[in-house]
What does this fold into?
Amino acid sequence: MLLILAGVTIAALTGDNGILSRATDAREQTDIAEEKEKVALAAQAALIDNNGREILQQELDKELENSFGKNKCSVEEGENNGEQGYIVTITDTGRRYFVSKNGHVEQMIPGPKVTHTINPDTQVAEGEKITITINATATEGEITKITKPDGTSVENTTTTTYEIEENGEYKFIVEQSNGGKTTYTVEITNGKYVERFSDIYTSTQQYTKNGQTAWIPEGFAVGTSDTINSIENGLVITDAIDENHNSIGNEFVWIPAEIDDMAKLTSGTDANGNPNYQGKLYDFTSTGATEMTSYGQGTTSYREPDTSNYDSNKTNLNIIKGILTSNTADYADITAFKNTMQEDYNAMIKSVEKYGGFYVSRYEMSKSTTGNTAVSVANVLSLTGASANTWYGLYAYGKTYKTNSVESSMIWGSQYDAMMRWMQDNGVDVTVNIGRNTGEITGSSQTDIIKNVYDLYGCHYEWTLESYSTNTRVSRGRQSYLYSFT
It folds into this structure.
């Protein structure tokens, strides 16, 4: 009797229609219902994103990522019973859903489950290979084909490998005998880095990331790749992109700053009616920055804005006028030059006050190959090395970069100090000397980068607009230029 009852109990628990089997089926149906509901909610959100007209794939991608996580779903155009829409595959389960363009969701036959490993999983140098290994498990039937990112395929195998060098997203398509198909995306972040940028902004807009704010000027694209899209790590923008959203233009890095830390009011106003400011300057140690007590507006101290005795030399002023060609009256004599510098400094401070920061060139300033203007690009001869410019030539070239939304200048000492303080506040010891990069080519040293700003230890010492003593400009690590909003 007991044996019979035990046998009946075991059968009831474990048979095809047993309690455990039915519980498993019920749990699976619950999982499917919850999963389908998440897809449906994402579909409705994507519909709302397009004002209820129809679902766009990029909006559906975004909403599914919000619901399931990055690279946890694949979306491709498809049809179901003649209706056009999108096929969504949940990569963890292999389940597939058809989403119509008006937001209707239906479950489809499942696809394979797919996982991957990469080797090595640590950062690799340029030229080293990373191997992606794909492992597939059929949910129904057998795996029939795996198509790799380059279009080649292997058949009747559950695993395959693929070698890459660069960071990016790599898509594999895994098919099984029941007709189910899973598109599986592997994101590589430890390979040679390929930076991507947004579309070009058509108006100046605020940008917020991790609770911090910057401004993206009209005519620029902002970094979307992880290492260039956050303010604390160095937010990068460019003024030109190609069809793959790679930068093909001038690049700049956002420096958060507050005017109270950069400058203080002095008496009077400039010719434009702006209040006059004097730069605050700093000494640095490994533990922090201290405002200097010896700077001022005399003729022998550290100071800005101001001129030096050399600025009265007509030859030097003619260098500026020869490069700029316009507004030459600003450099007619030392008095005009001093007034111009005060007006420029006041305008820069006013811009920093409005936007909460400024941009610095990502690379050491160089000269355009197509015009007499400064550029901020990699892998070219720096302007100092290319033309052996005097301070006056570099000052003039610093003003030649201009767009509808920004204008440029050779860097001020107080701005350089603001950049150093920001880097120090974000964990960088700016007093450490790693050895100067003596190369002449911009962006050529992979050890000469701080917060996405290159060439700070070279290529050349950098003159700034800060004056010292009677005839000297203060130099820093390298020559750069920056710009502020107009």
Notes: The chain has nine helices and 29 strands. Residues 255-485 form one domain. The chain has a mean pLDDT of 85.
